[in-house]
Amino acid sequence: MQVSRRQFLQVGGLGLMGAMGAGALVGCGGGSEAPAGSEPAASGTDKPVIFYNRQPSNSSTGELDMTALNYNKNTYYVGFDANQGGELEGTMIVDYIKAHIDEIDRNGDGIIGYVLAIGDVGHNDSIARTRGCRKALGTAVEKDGQIVSDPVGTNTDGKSDKVKDGEIEVDGKKFKIRELASQEMKTSAGATWDAPTAGNALSGTWASAFGEQIDIVVSNNDGMGMSMYSNWAKENKVPVFGYDANSDAVAALGDTDFPYGGTISQNPAVQAYLTLRLLRNSLDGVDVNTGVGKADEAGNVIAEDDFKFSKDDRSFYAMNLEVTADNYKDFTDPANTLYETAQAQLDEKDSPKKKVWLSIYNSADNFLGSTYKPLLEKYAPLLNLDLEVVQGDGQNESSITNKLGNPADFDAFAINMVKTDNGASYTSILGQ
Ligand code: BGC
Ligand code: CA
């Protein structure tokens, strides 16, 4: 049966919601807990501000930076449900192991060994994925009630105190699961989520030291995952699991020599839309839920299953979707796939042209550059917004804040920070 993307989203979304049980999030899309409407944005410090993709938070403790998130009444965060996505990545890997149990243990030592590429030890997206994968694989160790997300370095002997050996039994056969190695993939200059660093770590360091012990490659994202896939894993027929469902990773799921193992879509069509839509709503002085949980006059609406609103966090979270060999054809062109029921042109009479300043922390980021930015550029004209995109170097906040010299020229701001701790570096400029 041919399933349309929309049907898939509905089915997938419902399944996920069911599996999640009662989460920590309060509101849900379209429900009565939607935020109250906002007044028309005035000048100066009431201009709408959306933080996106990097949630203002303490990079050591993960605690949300509520000062930045409450900068003004038109400030929100747009991201995705990081915990649900991290757990989904983990269970996807376990399902793959079960389905491939006869060939997964390449050297037959009874241990399913994996290596893990960590994106940014201080970024909650990255932390949630490390935790979700360790939890599902049974390798997680807790400290102070939370799963440790630190890299182990090398753990071929299974003695690390940051992880433990997991165990899995399939068809009466028992295997250990071991995190052989993990590290943060950061350049010497400090850029995180670095794909070439991951590719080199695998093919250069890990594979030469203990290559035949590696049965699975796990990555916090597809940028790093694809670099490891093409540098070593594909050739050695070791499955790689990533996150983001970038178009190259989705295409590799259909590779006929040896396919990519699987990925998670963080529903970028919903996130990119929300990033601009929430700005639009504040600019128009309408309820922030307009065209989101509640259809606008043009018919734009996001289905309840595809996002959540947490009032306490002032955050909108898209729901993640699993992408595997079974369904990848529904995800082949993420940069051009707008949300099916949210792509109608707004009327300029009610939503006049406005100027938006938008930052991207690193011009080299794979997911933001190849998927998110193209989507933003497609939504902007539909929402009558003129986008000025400013890109940083991924290392220094000033590579972006230096380009915010004239906030008075813009009506609204969408901010993607280099470091999640640095919300105030932006709000202090806007507040002037
Ligand atoms: C994505 C990564 C990306 C990062 C940038 C994450 O949500 O999954 O691929 O590098 O955001 O902040
Ligand atoms: Ca093995």
Task: Tell me what the structure shows.
This protein has 432 residues and is α/β, with parallel strands linked by helices. Helices cover 31% and strands 19% of the residues. It has helices at residues 5-20, 66-69, 82-99, 124-137, 195-210, 222-233, 247-252, 268-284, 366-382, 398-401, 423-430; strands spanning 49-52, 75-80, 111-118, 142-143, 146-147, 153-154, 166-170, 173-184, 214-219, 240-241, 263-265, 307-310, 315-318, 321-323, 354-360, 385-391, 412-415. Helix 8 (268-284) packs across helix 9 (366-382). The protein is globular. The N and C termini lie far apart (57 Å). The structure holds beta-D-glucopyranose (BGC) and calcium ion. Residues 53-54, 119, 125, 193, 221, 223, 243-244, 365, 367-368 line the site of beta-D-glucopyranose.
Structural class: alpha/beta
**Mean pLDDT level:** 91
Termini separation comes to 57 Å
Heterogens? beta-D-glucopyranose, calcium ion
Largest sheet strand order: 12-13-2-1-17-15-16
Summed up, the helix count is: 11
Number of strands: 17
Radius of gyration: 21 Å
**Helical amount:** 25-40%
Order of helices and strands: HEHEHEHEEEEEHEHEHEHEEEEHEHEH
Stretches where pLDDT falls below 50 for ≥5 residues? 1-43
Note the beta-strand portion: 15-25%
Largest sheet: 7 strands, mixed
Shape: globular
